[in-house]
Amino acid sequence: MGGFGFLDILIFGGVALFLIFRLGNVLGKRTGHQEPPPADPFGISRDAEKADQDDDTVVQLPRGNRGSEDQIPGHESDRAEGPLDAGLTQITVADPSFESGEFLNGAKIAFEMILGAYSQGDEDTLRNLLDDSVLDPFLAAIADRADKGHRLEEVLIGIDGADILEAKMEGTTALVTVKFVSQQAHALYDADGQVIDGDPNKITSVTDIWAFSRDTRSRDPNWLLAATRSSN
């Protein structure tokens, strides 16, 4: 008579229980092959990033803080010696944790947060993300706007691109210059609510050149904005 015997059923049942047990162990544990959480070179938490994405109000930076190319740390003319890769290598040697892709991701978040903080007069955020060399002009512009009763309204439609232009070491300080191309709509209102600069309904492509710096000997791993310039 065909079919499985009682002993056969017990054997197959035991094998099935063993496989289920092993599968549960594998799915229930983390292994060393899983990717670690992404690095945060600008010290911006994920909560802060989400909050910034929910707020689309940003601002055009104060013109007085935008110098020529030669005034921006890490930004040199077309006569610059050495390729970009050489500068990035120098930074990596001084700071093994540096990775250009992670840096650019952090730089784009910092770009949005700094613009938003300036627009809203959020001095605490600016103090955390700006170097002392550029902080004072930002704070002075905010104070001047408040004294005049002006209100700045600018919407960041989106960042079209972010590229590293130059990178180098100056002593123990790493300097990385990034070009941001973004779409923005800008309007400055006076105390009576009248537009005195810009057009809130006009979207403009804006190119900003920002330089970020970090002392590679410092225990603080965060990068700071060291200079800004707009080519528009």
The oligomeric state of the chains shown is single chain
Number of strands: 6
Amount of helix: 25-40%
Largest sheet: 6 strands, antiparallel
Order of helices and strands: HHEHHHHEEEEE
Tell the overall outline: elongated
How big is the Rg?
A: 26 Å
Beta-strand level of the residues, as a percent range? 25-35%
Helix count from the secondary structure assignment: 6
SS-derived structural category: alpha+beta
Q: Kindly, what is the distance between the CA atoms of the first and last residues, rounded to a whole number of angstroms?
A: 90 Å
Could you list the spans in which at least 5 consecutive residues all have pLDDT below 50?
A: 17-38, 48-60, 63-71, 74-80
Characterization of the model:
With 232 residues, the chain is of the alpha+beta class. Helices cover 37% and strands 27% of the residues. The chain contains 6 helices and 6 strands; from the N terminus they run ααβααααβββββ. The chain has helices at 6-27, 46-53, 84-94, 100-120, 123-129, 132-148; strands at 57-58, 151-170, 173-189, 195-198, 204-215, 224-230. β2 and β3 form a beta hairpin. The longest helix has 22 residues, at 6-27. 26% of the residues are buried.
Question: How is this structure best summarized?
Answer:
The protein is α+β, with helices and mostly antiparallel strands and 232 residues long. The chain is 37% helix and 27% strand. Strands 1, 2, 3, 4, 5 and 6 form a six-stranded antiparallel β-sheet that branches.
Keywords:
232 residues; 37% helix; alpha+beta; six-stranded antiparallel beta sheet; 6 strands
